[in-house]
Amino acid sequence: MPMQSRVERSMAGDAPWLVLSPHLDDAVLSCGALLEAQAREREIIVVTLFTEAQTAPHTRAASSFLRQCTVADAGELFEARKSEDLAVLEAMGVQAIHLGEADALFRRRRKPPMVGSSAWDRLFPELTHRYPTYRFDIAMGRIARGDQALIRRLRTAVAGLMAQTQAELLFCPAGVGKHVDHLITRELGCGHPGNVVMYSDFPYDLVADPDQRHMSKTGFVPWIWDTGLDVKAGRISQYATQVDALFPDGKIPRKPETYFVPRPG
């Protein structure tokens, strides 16, 4: 008889699960089918970390994101995104917690360098933001040194939630695509090695592969869930502010969910 994975062993019982989601859709994008199936059997709490924008002026990257979402005001967009997330998760039977940290696109430096006035801020907002660009900063997989205080704060919050919920499993992203918010969330999850399960970041995993060096270091191997994918596509489509930007052709690919678990043995 084959050895069971960490997820399969947990599925045999009814212990709570805690799911770390970087942004207001990532948990459903990557884990929605498994979570909805298991929400009938156990308490599942999705904790979303980066759920806020900061005030204008915004970088070119952030402004481009707002245009893609067809909402000009960042505060208005994130209020809509939070409402979407709460509605989708409630319909799935999953609890939601929003931690209220700023998305990397909007995260500012505490002490902006080379900025002497608000006029500079308006003219060159990239100078006041921790991740000035998407392509060369957010998507390069390098967590800014200035985010260490943020990570410490989030580490304390996650430890508190683990103790409060008595969660058996702690799900976090595998960091496919190298988005810094996803890598921060992965670091938090991997701080609980006895509980962690990593999920493949969808839709980044349509075009990028897992970090093989990280997987080799952890000794984790893939585990696949392919039930309920049609229902999942319907849930994703309920994130109305995001779905058109994520899937411009209007089609949500049917892709089994991949998780990474310790090698059974």
Structure class? alpha/beta
| Poorly predicted residue ranges | 112-117
Number of helices: 10
The tally of strands reads: 7
| Helicity level | 25-40%
N-to-C series of helices and strands: HEHEHHEHHEHEHEHHE
Q: Terminal Cα separation, in Å?
A: 12 Å
Rg of Cα set = 18 Å
What is the strand arrangement across the widest sheet? 3-2-1-4-5-7-6
Instruction: Estimate the strand proportion.
Output: 15-25%
Q: Which word captures the global form?
A: globular
Q: How can the largest sheet be summarized? A: 7 strands, mixed
Report the average pLDDT across residues: 94
Short description:
The protein is α/β, with parallel strands linked by helices and 265 residues long.
